[in-house]
Amino acid sequence: MRIVSLIASSTEIVHALGFGDDMVGRSHECDFPLKVKDLPICTEPKFKVEGSSYEIDQRVKEIVQESLSVYRVDAEKLNELQPTHIFTQDQCEVCAVSLKDVEDAACSLITSNPQIVSLHPDSLKDIFEDIRRVAKSLNAEVVGEALIANVKARMQAVVDRVAKLKARPRVALIEWIDPLMAGGNWMPELIEMAGGINLFGVAGEHSPWMKWEDLVASDPDIIIVSPCGFGIERTMQEMHLISQRPEYATLRAAKVGKVFVADGNQYFNRPGPRVLDSLEILAEIFHLGVVNYGHESVGWIRFSAAALPAPSK
After folding, report:
1. Is the N end or the C end of the chain the one with fewer CB atoms within 10 Å?
2. Domain residue ranges in the chain
3. Which CATH number is 147-307's, of 3.40.50.150, 3.30.160.20, 3.40.50.1980, 3.40.1060.10?
4. DSSP string covering the chain, please?
5. pLDDT tens per residue across span 87-116
6. What does residue 63 show for φ and ψ, rounded to 5 degrees?
7. CATH superfamily entry for domain 3-120
8. d(C-alpha 114, C-alpha 96), whole Å
9. Does this model's pTM top 0.85?
């Protein structure tokens, strides 16, 4: 087999199923496991990814408003790689290369007649179905079911552990900073499983825009900032947009030091096997000092305005 994965989550699924050595190409966002970085890149964004979250949001919206694709697929590179399988997605045309992008490329150039498998993870259940979909396409159904069973069992162990604890914090998870967006899809499910009460976003539905006034009115016990595609360091560069709001100091979470920054690139926004890690991170944050899976400082940090980087000139 010759596998090209054009989304980070399917790359992780392919490796978890034991087919990492069969990968011959990847997307520009695929970076885990680290060895995939050595593979040829078959996609690129059509917009400048540098700048603030507001600037990125505006660039993407301008492209979408013109009914154009946000990403470019290198059809010539794909044809050169002669893939037997191409994994993509049709869940969000903004988050990653879409099924339409791949189909357009396949129709124009690719001569290897690859099997195109599209994933659509709206919920936790869908993530497991996508693992089944990938496994079936690779004739590895038994391995796929074993992987799903293992992830589910470990997630249930987290649920059982936090169920014994009394704390049920009210949680606001922010998935984009400017403009504000709340976590949706599988995130509300993970928050509840980790022992929290989700305040924004609906399980199985796309992440909704939110207003600062709504965040203030809800006065959450915990605020987690985990922008889609941003790691911790990148997010910290924009935390001043939240912490310097005049109402910020009045928020319960800010007063008690329960504002956190989590890695939205490697964990929360990757619907693959590491959804388990996302759940563990939430459990650690919700039950500080009681639950520890070793993710602190790697997957999440406690936010401190004193740690903000100096503003760029």
Report:
1. C
2. 3-120, 147-307
3. 3.40.50.1980
4. --EEE-SHHHHHHHHHTT-GGGEEEE-TT--SSGGGGGSPB-EEESS---S-HHHHHHHHHHHHHTT--SEEE-HHHHHHH--SEEEEESS-TTTS-BHHHHHHHHHHT--S-PEEEEE--SSHHHHHHHHHHHHHHTT-HHHHHHHHHHHHHHHHHHHHHHHTS----EEEEEEETTTTEE--BTHHHHHHHTT-EE-S--BTSPPPB--HHHHHHH--SEEEE--TT--HHHHHTTTHHHHTSTTGGGSHHHHTT-EEEE-IIIIIT--STTHHHHHHHHHHHHTTTT---S-BTTTEEE--GGGPPPPP-
5. 988 765 555 555 666 666 665 667 778 888
6. -70, -45
7. Nitrogenase molybdenum iron protein domain (3.40.50.1980)
8. 20
9. yes
Is the torsion defined by CA of 299, 50, 127, 137 positive or negative? negative
CA distance 277 to 158: 10
Q: What is the pLDDT of residues 201-242, one digit of tens each?
A: 999 999 999 999 999 999 999 999 999 989 999 999 999 999
Written as one letter, the residue type at 196 is: G
Cis amide bond preceding 208, omega within 30 = no
Give the closest residue to 220 by CA, choosing from 248, 241, 262.
248
Nearest by Cα to 4 from 81, 103, 74: 81
Tell me how many degrees the CA angle 302-150-175 measures, rounded to the nearest 5.
35
Dihedral sign, Cα of residue 132, residue 133, residue 135, residue 139: positive
CA angle at 82 for the pair 78 and 88, rounded to the nearest 5°: 50
Report the half-sphere exposure of 56 (CA within 13 A, side-chain side).
17
The type of residue at 285 is: I
Please, what sign has the CA dihedral across residues 270, 275, 281, 282? positive
Write out the two tokens for 26.
């990847």
Would 3-120 and 147-307 be classified into the same CATH topology?
yes
Distance CA 51, CA 66 (A): 22
